[in-house]
Specification:
Length: 300
Amino acid sequence: MRVFITGASGHVGSALVPELLHHGHSVLGLARSDESARRLTDWGAEVVRGDLDDLDRLQAAAAAAEGVVHLAFRHDAMVAGDLIGAAETDLAAVRAIVEALAGSGKPFVGTSGTGLISLAGLDRPGTEHDSLPGGYRIDAENFLVEAAAKDIRTSVVRLPPITHSKLDHTGFAPSMIAFARKNGFSAYVGEGTNRWPSVHTLDAARLYRLALESAPAGSRLHAVQDEGIEVRRIAEAIARGLNLPARSITLEQAPEYLGFLAAFATIDNPTTAAVTSELLDWHPTQPTLLEDLAKPFYFD
């Protein structure tokens, strides 16, 4: 299958491109910089120059491919505090690609987050069957799932707050580490008993491949290995890695000590992947988050 990937040179993309090539697929990757283009070429992928704002180019590349995986997101805007702008760009890109694929029967795998279902106020771990009528990034997820009615084999992979590995340079884990270095301590809010799920990058990449190959139309999938780790334990693991103390802060202090992460610091998001595991025979095999945080690579 010839697969068009947005975000192909990013964190998950840098694992997904080799995963697809290894399993006999070819890759057409979106690249907005010379460095990204060089990386894709070195891996053996074709390059499409552009970014998420170039909707005509997204549509042309999607139409020329046999399947699409949408990984790109305006993380720069999110980190700068423009959550609305980042989500609007994402939704516009999803709409453009859906328009290009309508009536084709091709697979289109999108990306969302397990953290969104924490807004439902569940008193149990979230499942793939849980959804919300709308909201930040939820609108794009719902639009893509509903696009299955347009004869597109759509699916959405919900990534947990932390997707971890040596390939993770800009996610929540390295951001928490950077803030801890800056502050001189590793921070968590209150008692830190709220829980975040996590997954290893390589396991997530394998799930995207399986979704591309065989996920039923309209599927919501969970890329989750650790169903829920207390944020205090994550902060303490980071403190050990940096030889710094871990310290509780108040919610009011969170923007000062955690920057953009303050918006996510108190999310309680225990999440299961039981449906995904059964549906696609996907079973994580890589190290857990706390195992990775016990290694030096995050701190070197």
